[in-house]
UniProtKB/TrEMBL annotation:
Name the record gives this protein: Response regulator
Entry keyword set: DNA-binding, Phosphoprotein
Domain spans labelled Response regulatory: 3-119
Record GO terms (molecular function): DNA binding
GO biological process: phosphorelay signal transduction system; regulation of DNA-templated transcription
Amino acid sequence: MISVVIAEDQALVLGALAALLGLEGDLDVVGRASNGQEALALCRALRPDILLTDIEMPLMTGLELAAALAGESLPTRVMIVTTFARSGYLRRALGAGVRGYLLKDAPAETLAAAIRTVHAGGRAIAPELALESWSGREDPLNERERQVLRLAGEGRSSGEIARQIHLSEGTVRNYLSEAISKLDAGNRVEAFRLARDAGWL
């Protein structure tokens, strides 16, 4: 049996994925998480073969989750299942050690087959994304710039961001200024939109 943990913040999608995979005789859904931190705790405790995760989730994104699992050398292989068909996301996912990247509109049998492929040591990337990923612009942001821009895009002030990530307000402003400059944007709102649309957040 291939053990699977599913991380998805939309309850209906989480239930549907678990039900679909439960129909497969060789797949065993051993845990469900509604945010990235829950998923990380489940992977530490259960050490599943596969983690199936969305990208956009509360507390920790799927990409941050993949990086955390890789950093802890856990045996779990990560697969992204998302609605975001953006080349920037795929590049970052591959850089974080993700082994599979599929879109949510893929047929159930495609997802099950992809899980088996990744479990066997292979990769499973949606073909339409694999081609597109190498045609897009390189992500110019570093991790800190990405972090402060994401928080700014949620409407937080420089002071609020500084308190949340334990930096000085001046340092946060510097990171935001760098991100705005790199993206050739007029302000933080435009920079957030450009980075989000490119899949860099």
